[in-house]
Amino acid sequence: MVRVLKLELRGITKRFGSLLANDHIDVVVEPGQIHCLLGENGAGKSTLMNVLYGLYEPTEGEILIDDKPVSFRGPGDAMAAGIGMVHQHFMLVPVFTVAENVALGAESTKAGGFLNLDDTRRKIKEISDRYGFDVDPDALVEDLPVGVQQRVEIIKALVRDARVLILDEPTAVLTPQDTDELLDIMRQLKSSGTSIVFISHKLREVKAVSDTITVIRRGKVVGTATPEASTNELASLMVGRAVSLTLDKAPAKPQEKTFQVSDLTVVSPTGQHVVDGISFDIARGEILAVAGVQGNGQTELTEAILGLQDRVHGSILLDGEELVGRSVKDVLNSGVGFVPEDRSVDGLIGTFSIAENLILDRYDQPPFAKGISMSPAKVLENARTRIDEFDVRTPSGLLAAGTLSGGNQQKVVMARELSRPLRLFIASQPTRGVDVGSIEFLHKRIVAERDHGTPVLIVSTELDEVMELADRIAVLYKGKLVGIVPAGTGRDVLGLMMAGIAPEDAAPAGSAEKTRPGPDTPETPRTSTASAEGGDHV
Amino acid sequence: MSEKDPRKHEADLHPDKPRGATPAAEETAAVVALDTAGGAMEPSAVPATAQSGKLPGGPDTLVRKIFTGNGMVSILAVFLALIIGGLLIASTDEQVGRTSAYLFARPADFLTAVWNAATGSYIALFQGSIFNPRGSSVGVQFAPFMETLTIATPLITAGLGVALAFRAGLFNIGAQGQIIMAGILAAWVGFALDLPLGLHLLLVLVAGIVGGALWGGLVGLLKARTGAHEVILTIMFNYIALYFLRYLLNTPAFQRPGDSNPISPILDPNAVYPQILGTQYRLHLGFVLAIAATVLVWWLLSRSTVGFEFRAVGANPKAAQTAGINVSRSTILVMAIAGALAGMSGVAQVAGTEKVLTDGVAATYGFDAITVALLGRSTPWGTFAAGLLFGAFRAGAVQMQIQTGTPIDIVLVVQSLIVLFIAAPPLVRAVFGLNPRRRKPAAAGTSQKAAATGGAA
């Protein structure tokens, strides 16, 4: 039987140079509890866990296990003390089997130095059966769905007799269904005596599963709460001011359909149809949000519209003009605003100044350039205006964009793309890694652009965001359009659609009208089923 | 979502931290940074790379850091290299050897000898490269400086070529080959054609620039079209250029009439650079053109849309592409311009300093140019200054050997030490006690994490 263990972090302080990532943090994880660390991106949660896991040495403070101080010089020490960690990005070798991955680092050998996996297989079976993981020890990890891979990570920790399991943003990569299953697993682990430290910024999940909630803001513990606390209370504690979590947006007033995608197929360099025969259209003054688990063709869809994909078949019409086959510059100049999904890779140049980033796709146009000669004064002037307008928190537009926080970086990208007349606005993951306060602001700007009469295409893997912004929701699965459903469609219907189940099968019986993907998709607005609204079914 | 990256925290924690005294002062200071084509290089205590997660370019990022780091490190690296060079000089000095025999009896003798040996050599180096007080007239006294400028000329232009390419994210090792191809074309136009004054020289210059631009542009084209790595390409192109030159020098068209030595005819007097300060100095028009080239590159990088594209592609090609910049075109164009700049070095050699074409036309200028660009942090004026410094080393080394018997090679050692130190900024800062409060480098943390968890998590 698993031993229970009390874990205490006392006065943990971690400095990086002049930056104080953790400031005297006290956390007590009682045995057999699910303890949630709630905080925004950059609040210092992961730093704290890296300290706990022996990856960082704390500047000050101590870690106590069962009231005895311990010091970890590396993850090995932490594991030996009974602490296991499941990273947000899995640390698995894709071409190894489950058993090989679990054995890795603690391989047992038979006589003659041969690898002995039987023992590992047996343990995996045991754990898998106990918690209903349904994991085959001999399956290749690369063949497993993400949710199952995550279970392999959990098994890895449990095989090593972890009594405290740290889950770092475990739901970021999961579908809503997978998330619910994970939450069940967490409850089971708890009931068998394993404590869990659950790191998240998603209030719904936190409220659903936690016993105790510690809220961290800017490296400090700002409060503790119980799961009974209201969502708004938790959000305010997390952000440090009152936030409105629901977006006030007027109903859409769709006008003529100026953006049409028909039978779009994108072929990847490896020959896969990553976008497969998609058709949809967007009207002026309407937001179409594309939902789906990451990696189901959303990236390729937006890149195909922008002209970044090479092998594109089908047609993309904007105001009757064909966009397929045109250069990125052409597409941008024809009035397409594009916010890429990963701002630090595609959206910004970290070493360039904010001012330069604000003109990244218009550097060669007046008033910023005459011929090939640029005007630094105009670039700066533009920067001042945009920084004010979008409330980018920076002392100067001449600082490198990479020095900004995620939310402010995203504001720079949005400011750039929204500050010219648009005929289509595309935003992928518009608020990924952005603090709650900025999310509010960015969402308002997106709705404002819609109300200005621009067709808007949003791609997001956050179901909450999709439901918040969308006037209609399209769901992608393995490159195919599962369906387009009206805003207000329930979370569980969308969740099933994200797993590839057609809306007519996903919806509770008799409630949904189907919308079939096709070159001429008929949009028949309908009222959503009452039962599906909200996300409190967990 | 990106909670996992611990480096993000340091960035996100203090987004509004004011830096500098006032916003106004901050802006002024930063304007200067912008003006020097540095983009806004590193106005923050937190390296930009720490927040942007990873810089695209993978393994090249170390090279990138080395090429675009702090200018202060460059200066300190030179200083440190000179000190160690001085110790090396002293270690080979006879007087130092003798006094070391009774080091413990009379340490002062030994230290004096060390001091004298090192300073003696450096004074000779100075006299050979800047100012010789023993000269009979002011003109003669400054002759060494003129020689320094002459030698610096090809270093500066080729260095600018390497620096410019580097700012666009390309590691151009090919200045050597570009100089050679430019030299071939320029020399041929210079000795084989008979044209009027002015026009002939202009044509020589154009031929050289075109030769270099084609040789560099071809690398850009191959990279853009096939994805071949520019380092491999430029190294190979250097060999091709060198052996092509040797082949040509064995054909009658490139030899003097009735002579089978691998040396070209002397360039037509109309085809050579005028000596700008009179015939007593070798200094030629090429130096003025090198200054012009520096201004041009500065303008290109900091004031033109083309340079904006180059820098964008160099700093983050994916973001550049997403912003509509044609990365292939930039790659080809920047390599062509880099080649053209190196080509100017080729012209300076055949039409300025040597006036003939031999297989030593490029000497080691093309390779030294890499060091020069490195020392100059890939900024135009930094490269200019570094070119002058290396010109001075080369010019003064001879005088140093004559006066003090210190081998010329010590200059190479000093040059190599400079590169070594530039490549290790933390070492330099540690030596001078400039390291900020010790912190665990984020990168080390990450790799450690990967290593640790890969095995056991």
What does it look like?
The complex is a heterodimer of chains A (538) and B (457). Chain A is α/β, with parallel strands linked by helices and 538 residues long. Chain A is built from 18 helices and 22 strands. Chain A has helices at 45-52, 75-80, 98-103, 118-131, 146-159, 176-191, 203-209, 231-239, 298-306, 328-333, 343-347, 354-357, 376-389, 406-418, 436-451, 463-469, 491-498, 503-506; strands spanning 7-16, 19-29, 34-39, 60-65, 68-70, 83-86, 164-168, 195-200, 212-217, 220-225, 257-267, 273-283, 287-291, 312-318, 321-322, 336-339, 369-370, 373-374, 424-428, 456-459, 472-477, 480-486. Chain A has a six-stranded mixed β-sheet, sandwiched between helices. In chain A, strands 16-19-20-13-21-22 form a six-stranded mixed β-sheet, sandwiched between helices. In chain A, a hairpin with a 5-residue loop joins strand 11 and strand 12 (273-283). Chain B has helices spanning 6-13, 23-38, 48-51, 60-68, 71-91, 94-101, 107-129, 138-141, 143-167, 175-192, 199-226, 230-249, 285-303, 305-315, 317-322, 327-353, 365-375, 380-404, 409-422, 425-431, 442-456. With 457 residues, chain B is mainly α. In chain B, helix 11 crosses helix 12. Mean pLDDT of chain B is 82; it is low at 1-60 and 437-457. The interface between A and B is large, with 92 and 78 residues.
